[in-house]
Amino acid sequence: MNSRHPRNPALRPARGARALWPGLALCLAITALAAGVQAVEEEAFGHPYVEALVVAILGGMALRTAWQPSERFAAGIAFGAKQLLEVAVTLLGASVSLGALVASGPALLTGIVGTVLLSILASLLLGRLLGLPARMSILIACGNAICGNSAIAAVAPVIGADGRDVAASIAFTAVVGVLVVLGLPLFVPLAGLSEHQYGVLAGLCVYAVPQVLAATVPIGLAATQIGTLVKLVRVLMLGPVVVALSFVAPRLSPEGGATDQRSARPGLGKLVPWFILGFLALASLRSLGLVPDAALPPLARIATMLTIVSMAALGLGVDVRGLAQVGGRVTLVVTGSLAVLIAVSLVLIRVLHLS
User: Fold this and answer.
1) Contacts of 161 (CB under 8 A, 6+ apart)
2) Based on C-alpha coordinates, what's the Rg of the chain?
C-alpha cells in the first residue's frame, strides 16, 4: 500500500477548492479596484457615474487583452464567471415579487414572445441574405434572441452545428454582450425611458440573465426587477425553440461535412438552468411573504458583491482582439439583428404605453 498517494475521495473537494483560489483572487483584486473607483466617484461627485459593475467588466477586459492568464487561473475565473453569477441571480429572486410581471398584463408577455420570434426570423433572414450557412445563422439567431452563449450551446448539438461555427458565434457574443451592457443605459436619456421602460428594454436585449444586473443596477431597483423578470420569460423560450429546432434539424442540408446529430437533444437542465428555478422559487417565497424584510438588505448586498466579482471574471474571459478573428459577414449579421431587436423592443414599449 502506497501511503504517499492516498486515494481518499474526501481530499478531492479540498484540492478542487485550492485550484479555484488563484483565479478567484485575481477576480477579487479587480473587484476591490472597481469598488475603490466607485468610492472615489461617490466622494468627488456624490454619486458614481460609472458603477463598480461596469468598472469590473472593463478592468477584466483590459487585463485580459494585455495579458493572458496562465492555466492556474483558469478554474477560478471560470467559477466566478458561471457559478458565482448563478448564485447572485438566485439571491436576487428574494427581492422580486412575481406580481410585478403579472401586473404588467398579458400584453407584455405576448410582446416578449413576439419580440423573440421576430428577432429570430430577422437574424435568419440577414444570415441567409449575407450567405452564412444555415446552421451558423440559426446559432446567431438564437444567441441574439434568447440568451447568448447558453442558447448557442443548447442549440448547437440539436442542429449538428460545426465546432468552428459554434466557436465563432460564442466568441463574438462574448464581446458584443459586454458592449450591450455598457451601451444600453444610453437609451435612458436618448429615448427618454423611465426605470420601468428601461428594465423592459434591458430584459429584451441583454444576452445573459446575469448581465441584466450589470445593465440595470446603475439605473435603479425597479429597472433591475422588471428587467430580470422579462429576461427570465425570454430565457424560458429556449425550451420551445430547441424542441422546434429538433424537428427542423433533419431538413438541414449537410455543411462542411457536419455529421447528423439530430438525436442529440439537451435535457431539462439545459433548457431550464437551476439558477432560473432558484430565482423563481425565491421570488415565489417573497411574493407569499415567506422571506422576512430584515433578510432583504443583506441578501441584496451579497448578490451585488457576487455580481461584481462575476463581472470581473467575465471581463477576464473576453479578449477584444478576438473580435478580429470572426468574419465580416458574422459581424454584420449579429449587429444587424441586434439593431432589429432593440428597435422592436422600443416599439413594443411605446405601443404598450409602459410607464
Assistant:
1) 135, 136, 138, 139, 155, 258
2) 21
* Interacting residues of 30 by C-beta distance below 8 A, sequence separation 6+: 56, 59, 60, 63, 312, 315, 316
**Is residue 118 within 8 Å of 336, Cβ to Cβ?**
no
Segments in the chain forming alpha helices (H): 11-45, 52-66, 71-79, 85-92, 99-103, 106-129, 134-142, 149-159, 163-183, 187-191, 195-205, 209-216, 221-236, 238-248, 268-271, 274-287, 296-316, 328-351
Cα 257 to chain centroid, rounded: 31
The per-residue pLDDT for 91 is 87
Q: Which set of grid coordinates corresponds to residue 264?
A: 442529440
φ/ψ (deg, to 5) at 126: -60, -45
Which residue reads 458574422 in cell numbers? Answer: 330
Separation between Cα atoms, residue 2 and residue 217, nearest integer Å: 55
pLDDT of residue 302 exceeding 70, the answer is yes
Distances (CA, A) of 53 to 31, 82, 118, 178: 8, 16, 31, 11
pLDDT exceeds 80 at position 103: no
What pLDDT is attached to residue 263?
Answer: 45
Q: How many CA atoms lie within 13 A of 225 on its CB side?
A: 19
Residues 30/40, Cβ–Cβ less than 8 Å: no
- Give per-residue pLDDT as tens, 261-279: 444 555 555 556 677 788 8
CA dihedral for 195, 201, 204, 209, sign (positive or negative)? negative
**Residue 116: alpha-carbon gap to chain centroid:** 15
CA distances (Å), 208 to each of 58, 81, 144, 202, 214, in order? 17, 12, 10, 10, 10
Show the cell assigned to 117: 420570434
Q: Which of 234, 243, 271, 245 is nearest to 111 (CA)?
A: 234
> pLDDT value at position 201?
94
Task: Quote the cell numbers at residue 289.
Answer: 411573504
- Give φ, ψ of 166 to 5 degrees: -60, -45
